[in-house]
Structures are given as structure tokens and as C-alpha cells.
């Protein structure tokens, strides 16, 4: 288990960074009172059943308690606690621009100029920047680039994508899934519904899958589909997408779509790069298929 202190200048992207840590499986806590941090860390590190990494957001909102964090850091370093500090930095010009765009006041200049609040904040956070294991300047980073930097620094499996893919089968007669990113229609394939011994089975069963795959059309379609997905998925990653829903539909969502979704899931899983799950929305819905 690791503990990452995520800190830095207000407006530099700490809240966004914490969301990325959460997507990576970290248990995230923001703005915990300084007086509780040491006890919190002690309890979590002592819990043998807790396998979650932790990202702890700390910033200028801690107020007068903030200097006490130096004592805690010194103690942790002396006791070899498994923690790291990420400090998010940004130029004054960029921070001022961000505050103007969001029309929010700086926490240290509620009724004054943003510039003065930023200057005072730099002074108060200087010790944290000095203690930081990583200082990340977000002045010129897009959101997707910030995500990539955080993943590069803190992901346990840096070869594995953070994109979570759901392969979903469905029936067009029940509507296209509202959360689908990609929708593929497989109603052109052989339909097991018209085979008496297969009608009341699903594409999760081998005889149904064999029927759908007969003739070579399904196999050819799968090759073209996987080629398309190999092209598209990395580009979704580059744009910072966290979840991708690939929906495969037939008339009732029981035979053809289930069989093809099964094959797509299996091939994506074999790549061992993505977190992939499979869901059959309508396979158990009663009614004519």
C-alpha cells in the first residue's frame, strides 16, 4: 500500500489529479484536517486487509494547521513510511487566467487581488514544494496530458491502460443502450432463433456460437471489427477517456449479439492491456427474439 500526498497551488489541478488517482484505484481523501492525518495514515497502514493505495489531498485550505504538516513529514521519513509527495505547480499568469475564467476567488484573497493571494500561498507552501518527490508544472498541460503524467509516475502497471472497456450485447427491440460509445449491428448474421433446438438458448452457449459463426461471415466481420478497435481504442486513450462501452446488437439481444460480444471480449482480454468486462443486457429478457 502507498500513500500519496497530492498538494500544490490552488488552481494548478489538484482536484482533477485526485479524480485521476481515483480512476487508478486509489482511495482518495481531500482536505483532511492536518491533526487527523497522522492517525489516518497510522490506521490505514496498520490495516492488513486494506490493499488500496491512498491519495491524500492537502492544500492551503488547511489554514493555520498547515505548518504542522512539516513535523508529520519529518516523522514519517524517519520511520520510513511508504509515502510520496506530488506538488502541482503553475505559473502566476496561468493561475490568474484560470481564476478569471472560473470567476472564483482565491482562498487567501477573498476580497482582494488574486495576485496577492497567489504570492502569499507560494510562501506558505514553499516547505511542501521543497519536500516534494515530484513537482509537476501544469501551466501548459491539457487535462489528458496531466492524466498521462500521473499515470506514468504512479501506476503500478504502467504497461496496462487505465481505460476500462465494457463489451455489451443488447437487443434493438429494447432500445440502443444510452451509454454506448460504439454500436455495431450484427443482424446480418445467421439467426439461431429459427432453429428449434437453439431458440431458447443464448449466445453464451457453444452450440449457439457455432451456429452464428458458420459460413465464415462472422469470422470475417470479427477480424474487421477488431482491426477497427485496435485503431480506435488508443485514440480514445489519448483523449483521456476513462471508460468505453462497445455495444453489439441483434434483434432481441439473445443469440447473435451475445455470441459476437463474447468473441470481442475474449480477444480484448487476451491483449492483457485493458480492464475488460462483458455484460449481456437482454439475454434473459422474456419474449420473442
TrEMBL record:
The protein, known as: RNase adapter RapZ
PANTHER family per UniProt: RNASE ADAPTER PROTEIN RAPZ
Residues binding ATP, per UniProt: 8-15
Keywords: ATP-binding, GTP-binding, Nucleotide-binding
Domain RapZ-like N-terminal, chain residue ranges per copy: 1-157
InterPro entries in the record: P-loop_NTPase (IPR027417), RapZ-like (IPR005337), RapZ-like_N (IPR053930), RapZ_C (IPR053931)
Binding, GTP: 59-62
Residues annotated as domain RapZ C-terminal: 165-283
Stored HAMAP family: RapZ_like (MF_00636)
Pfam families recorded: PapZ_C (PF22740), RapZ-like_N (PF03668)
SUPFAM superfamilies (UniProt xref): P-loop containing nucleoside triphosphate hydrolases
Amino acid at each position: 500500500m502507498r500513500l500519496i500526498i497530492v498538494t500544490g497551488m490552488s488552481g494548478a489541478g489538484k482536484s482533477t489529479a485526485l479524480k485521476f488517482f481515483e480512476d487508478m484505484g486509489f482511495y482518495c481523501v481531500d482536505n483532511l484536517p492536518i491533526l487527523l492525518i497522522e492517525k489516518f495514515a497510522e490506521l490505514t497502514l496498520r490495516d492488513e486487509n486494506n490493499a488500496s493505495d491512498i491519495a491524500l489531498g492537502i492544500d492551503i485550505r488547511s489554514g493555520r494547521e498547515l505548518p504542522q504538516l512539516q513535523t508529520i513529514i519529518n516523522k514519517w521519513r524517519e520511520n520510513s513510511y511508504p509515502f510520496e509527495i506530488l506538488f502541482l505547480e503553475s505559473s502566476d499568469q496561468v493561475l490568474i487566467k484560470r481564476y478569471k475564467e472560473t470567476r472564483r476567488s482565491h482562498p487567501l484573497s477573498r476580497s482582494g487581488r488574486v495576485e496577492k493571494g497567489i504570492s502569499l500561498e507560494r510562501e506558505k507552501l514553499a516547505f511542501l514544494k521543497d519536500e516534494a518527490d515530484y513537482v509537476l508544472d501544469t501551466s501548459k498541460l491539457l487535462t489528458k496530458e496531466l492524466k498521462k503524467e500521473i499515470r506514468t509516475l504512479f501506476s503500478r502497471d504502467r504497461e496496462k491502460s487505465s481505460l476500462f472497456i465494457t463489451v455489451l450485447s443488447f437487443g434493438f427491440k429494447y432500445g440502443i443502450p444510452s451509454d454506448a460509445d460504439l454500436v455495431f449491428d450484427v443482424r446480418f448474421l445467421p439467426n439461431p432463433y429459427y432453429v428449434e433446438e437453439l431458440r431458447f438458448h443464448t449466445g453464451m452457449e457453444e452450440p449457439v456460437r457455432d451456429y452464428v459463426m458458420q459460413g465464415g461471415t462472422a469470422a470475417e466481420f470479427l477480424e474487421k471489427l477488431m482491426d477497427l478497435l485496435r485503431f480506435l481504442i488508443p485514440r480514445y486513450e489519448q483523449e483521456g477517456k476513462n471508460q468505453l462501452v462497445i455495444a453489439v446488437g441483434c434483434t432481441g439481444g439473445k443469440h447473435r449479439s451475445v455470441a459476437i460480444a463474447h468473441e470481442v471480449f475474449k480477444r480484448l482480454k487476451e491483449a492483457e492491456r485493458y480492464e475488460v468486462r462483458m455484460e449481456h443486457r437482454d439475454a434473459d429478457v422474456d419474449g420473442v427474439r
